């Protein structure tokens, strides 16, 4: 582990101890341990995700660490602040940081000729990459009712006759 990760690990364990006593009481922590508040597995997951740069927002933190205990919701923002104390997120780009030669807005002229900027007015379909193995069409699979061969396959199953 890097020096930053070791320092973050120490800081995270201290934070967990303080928050566990605050949430559960000192007697409960003495009896059951700080793992009742946040397990060692979650601690290691937070460290791994932080060192890989995956914990930049609360949404990413919730998705990556899987800390689903009821009181975790009120501590996630504090945890993210702790993460950012040790691993600050990159500063957002500003016009001044882009320099005089770079445009502040993305331009399709900067893209390779085979790529164009997506039309932001039209939402992208999550099914665009699907390819049907039955009819060869795109945008669906052979088990989807949109496939022209789907009804024929269902008819063949029900009657036992082949349809050409």
Short description:
49% of the residues lie in helices and 0% in strands. It has helices at residues 3-24, 26-32, 40-51, 58-65, 72-86, 95-98, 148-159.
Could you list some keywords that capture this structure?
164 residues, mainly alpha
Task: Characterize the structure shown.
With 164 residues, the protein is mostly helical. The protein folds into 2 domains: 3-86, no CATH class; 127-164, no CATH class. The protein has 7 helices and no strands. α1 (3-24) packs across α2 (26-32), α1 runs antiparallel to α3 (40-51) and α1 (3-24) packs antiparallel against α5. The chain starts with a helix and ends in a 5-residue tail after the last helix. Residues 114-122 have low confidence and may be disordered. This is Zinc knuckle domain-containing protein.
Write the SSE topology.
Layout: H1 3-24, H2 26-32, H3 40-51, H4 58-65, H5 72-86, H6 95-98, H7 148-159
Protein name: Zinc knuckle domain-containing protein
InterPro entries: Znf-CCHC_6
Organism: Pleurotus eryngii (Boletus of the steppes)
């Amino acid at each position: 582990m890097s020096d930053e990760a070791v320092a973050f690990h120490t800081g995270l364990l201290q934070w967990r101890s303080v928050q566990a006593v605050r949430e559960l009481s000192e007697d409960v922590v003495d009896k059951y341990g700080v793992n009742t508040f946040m397990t060692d597995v979650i601690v290691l997951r937070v460290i791994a995700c932080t060192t890989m740069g995956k914990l930049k927002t609360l949404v990413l933190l919730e998705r990556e660490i899987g800390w689903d205990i009821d009181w975790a919701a009120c501590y996630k923002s504090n945890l993210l602040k702790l993460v950012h104390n040790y691993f600050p997120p990159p500063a957002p780009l500003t016009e001044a940081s882009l320099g005089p030669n770079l445009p502040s807005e993305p331009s399709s002229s900067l893209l390779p000729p085979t790529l164009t900027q997506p039309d932001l007015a039209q939402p992208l379909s999550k099914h665009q990459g699907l390819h049907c193995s039955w009819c060869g069409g795109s945008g669906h699979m052979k088990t989807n009712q949109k496939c022209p061969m789907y009804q024929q396959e269902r008819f063949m199953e029900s009657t036992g006759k082949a349809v050409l």
